[in-house]
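Structure representation.

___
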Amino acid sequence: MLKCVMSGSQVKVFGKAIQALSRISDELWLDPSEKGLALRSVNSCRSAYGCVLFSPVFFQHYQWSTSVKMNDTDIILNLNCRLGMKSILPIFRCLNSLEKNVEKCKIFTRSDKCKVVIQFFCRHGIKKIHNVCFQESQPLQVIFQKNMCANTLVIQPRVLAEAVVLFTSSQEEVTLAVTPLKVCIKSSNEESTDLTNSVYSEMFVGPDEFDFFQVGIDTEITFCFKELKGVLIFSEAIHAPIAIHFDFPGKPMALSIDDMLLEANFILATLADEPSRASSPQTLCLSQKQKS
């Protein structure tokens, strides 16, 4: 059983998380626990994973239980809700309007009918109810120790936004190159022969522009741009810096956001820097979430 209550401003942050995760996959897992409500997403080729964990104190009210009452009997059920992104994303699309008009939002599950119910209590006594069907499915988690990475950069979203604004909407991949003296973010189509997409852009950022700057090894990593934009939009919404953890090409990188009320981790595969391998992101090491 899950039941949580949010204000209009909290709904906006919650919706931004869903929008960021929608850049990874067309499926979304709701994974409630005593630690809070986790939203998870992993793409079909398992090269990108995202999780946003909302602490119980983020909500005005948060209630979670593994047991439900059926025929006057308590039955232990693990709540594993897999939702279609096409079903839930339109509900949280117009976030500015929701923030202004929604006074309270309730989200709860009806496990007996496999539905997540989202209720908006708006101004002027208007009440909107959305019933979203879910499938029971164990959420996946990535096995990745980001704190073991040799390189860690912490940057404010406005600085990163100035860097990525250089890239066109058609940009699929970007390259991050670091040394102890500078950071370079560049488009990865330097040698492209396509004249319709032949712009090559670079931006250099000095160490002083970062909140934290640790470069243990000089390296260049290439990864998908779409997921980076999603993380950036989310971090701008909550005014929190982004931490980037990475090592060498072919090893996953982590983009993380730590706030008092939530924690976000996006793990992205990077291109392997080996001529013998195909130029495609490596898959992440995933595990099935186990619940007691």
Summary: The chain has a mean pLDDT of 87. Residues 8-22 form the longest helix (15 residues). The two ends are 15 Å apart (CA to CA).
